[in-house]
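ok new one. same drill as before - structure tokens go in, u give me an amino acid for every spot. 131 of them this time. try not to just spam alanines like last time pls lmao
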């Protein structure tokens, strides 16, 4: 979840809405309101894409198929780092994982991750949802 992004979108919407009432800077209000609505729409569309496409990925799928379904990952790690870049304990590092793709939801604590082997085939998928 990107708290600063959510705050920026809400703040832009509120300030834009208020500025719509001021004749001299009405154009700024229109711009901020439209930008906030577009940013929120993009975040929702991206989240829906992840939710719709992630279940279609299975063990053995290629990196190319993953990118076709989910797009460019938000983060790529070497398997030694967990969600949001936290270092994993040695007992949590899998030897068959060469690379991991991370996809984050902008407005909610929701993460999708895929692990690839050295041949760039999916060996594990997981979805993390905070309660």
């Amino acid at each position: 979840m990107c708290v600063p992004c959510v705050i920026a979108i809400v703040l832009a919407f509120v300030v834009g809405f208020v500025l719509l009432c001021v004749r001299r800077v009405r154009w700024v209000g229109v711009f901020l309101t439209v930008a906030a609505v577009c940013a929120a729409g993009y975040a929702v569309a991206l989240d829906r894409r992840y939710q719709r496409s992630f279940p279609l990925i299975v063990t053995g799928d290629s990196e190319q198929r993953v990118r076709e379904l989910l797009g460019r990952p938000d983060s790529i790690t070497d398997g030694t780092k967990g969600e949001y870049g936290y270092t994993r304990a040695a007992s949590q590092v899998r030897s068959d994982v060469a690379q991991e793709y991370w996809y984050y939801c902008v407005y909610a604590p929701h993460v999708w991750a895929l692990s690839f082997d050295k041949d760039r085939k999916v060996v594990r998928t997981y979805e993390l949802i905070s309660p």
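The two ends are 13 Å apart (CA to CA). and btw Residues 3-129 form a domain with the Beta-lactamase Inhibitory Protein; Chain:B, domain 1 fold (CATH 3.30.1450.10).
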